[in-house]
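User: My collaborator sent over this chain with a note saying "see what the structure looks like." That's all I know about it. Can you take a look?
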Amino acid sequence: MGALATSPLQLGQLARETWGSYDAAAIAQLYGLADDACYQMRVYKAPADDQELVPAYGNVRNGLEIKPGSLIFGFALPCVVMSDTIESNGPQASFTVQIRDVSLERDWFDDPLAGLFLANYKPTSEMLMYVNFGDDPCLPSDWNFLCAPYPVVGSGLFMVDIQSTANATQRIELVFGVLEVCG
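Assistant: Without extra context I'll predict from the sequence alone. Here is the result:
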């Protein structure tokens, strides 16, 4: 007798199926891929490590290559902590972003999108133990799922254009969640 696949995303206490829950609907689309040997989960980050410190009102263009046949399912943004307490300024969102699919010559957004709309800050008791990334203490964030997985076609090249809207230098890390095709 075959076992039903259980997506690890369904086990999260903040992603369970409840009325009006967007995450549960997005997770249901990924459910069948949980045990599929054709895909493995990978994360991609933009901008590159040497470009993530963006000066006040600065602009960073970063190329991103994802294996064709893969599926982009969402984004994650680190949350910068203001002190050693639970207080947080929420997701790092002082930037706008435009993502261009080079193969399709298509922009993802009509206008550059505020980083706040790519965040999914869901604090839980487990998050009280934050981790340090470089000089900034950060809380992990949850995935912000796309309404449907985005198929990577053609060359798999994307141009990520990030514009800082802060009046000071800041670290910007936009993480892409990808189910990369194997083989």
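A starting point for your reply to your collaborator: Residues 22-30 form the longest helix (9 residues).
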